[in-house]
Structures
1.
Amino acid sequence: MQNLKYFLPIVLAAALLAGCGSSSSAKLGNADIAVVGGQHVSQAAFTALLARAKKSYEQQGQKFPKQGTTQYETVKGQVVSLLVQEAEREQEAESMGITVTDKQVTDRLDQIKKQYFGGSETKYQAQLKKQGITDDAVRNDIKAQLVSEAIFNKVTKDVKVSKKEIHDYYTGHKSLYQQAETRDVRYILVGKDKATAQSVYRQLQAGNVKTWCTLAKKYAKDASGENCGKATFSKGQTVKVFDNIAFSAPANKVHAPFYDPTQYKAWFVVEPLGPVKPKSTTPEKQVSSSINTQLLQQKKNQAMTDWATKTTKHYCGGARVKYQPGYAPSPDPCTATTTVTT
């Protein structure tokens, strides 16, 4: 990634929804587009973020919607919603005792500079200019992201996965851990010329492993030649005619050339090596760690969703979010929550 869209609140808001905060609500001022609890969302913040949205459109070679159009109102509503959500998160973080220091912000920014700009301050500043944003704006966005991460960690710190949940998932999804029959083969994808395939076949019949290497490297139309034509296939992995021969022909005997009329439209020469290896199932103990990781993330995401739903209802109740005329998003994020009976 070579741009700073990573820092936009649009990205940050996707990681965390609205949080609860002060039970009181400030009064709308002339310079506000909204108030969230006791916090003001300024016209200046709205204008700055809208300008960044315009710049993002330009970077993607798209025209920014004209004022008065449905598309413009959609973007405008998204910008307002993001600013409101950010204000809610800040208040929620404060109530949870979460603080983010300037050093934490600087440390994260240094990591980003190293990862995306090779540690070059010059390249970083050039990208800021290209994106039309300031270092202060980037730092504010990083702070918001760190706050979001801290809230997520706090909300999900007690989430755990039991051994029973891991076992139940394993038994309920056993097909995910089953391996099909496999067989080792040597093969050469010769190409469209039957005469060449017949010639290769005759040479292999009278040859040995060294002959396989020589001919595979010379004639193979795929990467198999690099391994002397040797490969392992699972049942059903490749085209039907190849699959049938690879799993039914006798071992250690070169099969006569055959043609695939479907995908490759080419001639093959194949020699199965050894017996077909039967189906197998990976034991639960070998995959329990990966299952735990998967389920843990799912449970954390669900805990975060539940928290977000609860806190959004809190903010949407009691007129804690107020909009200046003309700035209320459509649809209003509070509509769904305030119409639900709890």
Note: The chain has two domains: 5-158+309-338, 181-278.
2.
Amino acid sequence: MARKILWASLALAPFTILLHYLVGPDEMLEFILAAAALIPLAWLIGEATEHAAHHTGPGIGGFLNATFGNAPELIIALFAVADMKFEVVRGSLSGSVVGNLLLVLGFSLLFGGRGALDRQSSFVSLGLVAVAVLLFLIPAIPAFDGDPERRSIAELSIPPAVVLLVIYLAVTFVSLRRHRLLHVADPAGLRGWSLRTSLLVLLVATVVTALIAEILVGSIDTFAESANLSEFFIAAVIVAIVGNAAEHGGAVVVATRGNIKLAAEIALASSAQVAVFLIPAVALLAWLIEPLALSFRPVELIVLGVSVVTTALLLAQGQSSRSRGVVLIALYVAVAAAFFLAGDR
């Protein structure tokens, strides 16, 4: 049923694009439609990537997962950079890490109940996020005073970004040699698309996602004003959840089926991938458009640190439970409230 709904909801994307270019509706409506349209697009990109990986082998498959699995978030971030919405960029990326750690993992534990987790794999992912947070301090601390967007901060962001990408490549290489991918998806239900079909779907879905992302970013200002919300809150909570919608739903479905170990792997590995791959990739690619400073705000860094420590403490015994899931979800609610109170810089 869920797959049928996702297939049907793909019609939202062309409808939103036609409405934008032919009618020019209210931007409040455009934001809502664009956000809704990104959810099935993110799912379709994930589907096409998984089908392609079956033909290309683990090496190229891992590259496709890393590149296209985060395509919606990457595209949203780059369009936000082009529009000089740097707070939106950083907020959506930090919000994505926190969302995976607390919200997705929390619901996975809640629906999955008791079960054993892969403790070693969990702490590898948490360790990667912790290292990323420490490296983010290098450009963030000098940005606490003065203009956080100044070029010197953007230049100071390059070394941490490069180090994180090197770490990501090294960890991914080791994982591939062990025939495991950092990003684990549920292969159930795959019907064996051909490689040509998979790549064609991937290309079309990515192009359409780019068009929808442009509409979404362009309407954030109006939506924020109409809803009396800060752009930072919208980016860190709403956009972050929308960009990860497919993975969010996938993890919960897997947990509901009883495979809590895989569900936790999806949530934790996705969080690590955003922290050590997507954020540095955006920071470096942004130089082709506008220099981006990784000048995360104190509230973002504190939330990231608390999320990592709390999750590590809850998973220390390598066991899941509904009560642990409730704690993570409650913490995410508190985080969302903190982002709301923080407002724009």
Note: The chain is about 80% helix and 0% strand.
3.
Amino acid sequence: MKKRILVFIDWFLPAFKAGGPITSVLALSKILANHFNVVIITGDRDLNDTTPFEHVLFNQKVKEEISGAEVYYLKRGVHRIRTVIRILQSEKPDVVYINGIFSFWFSLFPLLLMKANILSCKVIICPRGMIGDNTLQVKKYKKQFFLSVTRLTGWYRKITWHATSETEKNRIKQHVSGEPEIVVIPNVPVSFNYINKNNRSKKEGVLSLVYCSRILPIKNLLFLLQLLSEIKDGDITLDIYGPIEEEDYWGKCKNIIRLLPANIKVNYLGAVNAHTHPVDYSLYDFMVLPTLHENFGHSISEALSAGCPVIISDNTPWRGLSEANAGFDIPLSDREHWVSSVKHCLHMAHDEHQKWKQGAKLFFDKKSDLKNNKEKYLQLLTP
């Protein structure tokens, strides 16, 4: 009989605007499907939406087709207390896996139930990058106060932590009292086998770029646009995909776009649900993301898996790209290196670009190591 894993996450399919955490749980659900019964507890709407999903049954278990998992979509309101307790009593999970640490309903409340002895099983928390240096700058003082209180009270006693990198492991040690049990396993990518492998020719002096991420300061789109404004030769096209989360920030981006030189063309193509309509990265010469922090970077992995080299900051786990002819990982402080790298890509000829495309795919295959990581997840989630 399969063991039962109950997963708490603020947003899950059909939600997509929250980006990486949704994709991480989707990928995890897929690799665990043959070994565990995966049941997900999540909210009733997408990130920043004011209305709940349409055509979804709330507060009862339904099958989610893309992930194959069973899902409870919780309606908002204090009645969630009774609903979650009812779910725990009926599901009788062997393991509870919590994504994130700052959400009341999907991070704190399950732990309150554990402390009240309503929940009594193995509990695992994955911070999903929420305690990175740059992410903690958002609502800084509230988060620092919360982390201080949890340290002083020993809030996270008897918890197993899942870190997706050594950096995150160090952050957990920094913010959790005592000697927490921490298991390091990278995220696993979601594979889109139906992406078209486009073989169009790369022309010297012409560059096609794609940015696919949320539009808010931490993803640093404004930095990219300011960078492009310094390149006066050649022809560069940038396609932007992603939900606009901060209108003021997007307004600053649009002001830069209006002032770009004539050789730079920027197209905003809206928010896309990558789980149902994935971006075809093979249509582009390079993917670009000057992020301030990326716990994993699913858009980066998807680009590399499609043979699209990337130009990214060094604030992600995807390092050593240039040595592998898979792209560039550049410190944001080195603006000159950013400009010279984009210019190098702009003037790259077809034969050289083909080598970089091959390098991107090989780098992804080596880095992802799905078989080994799957075994580690099975060990982590076994009660």
Note: The domain at 206-368 is CATH 3.40.50.2000 (Rossmann fold).
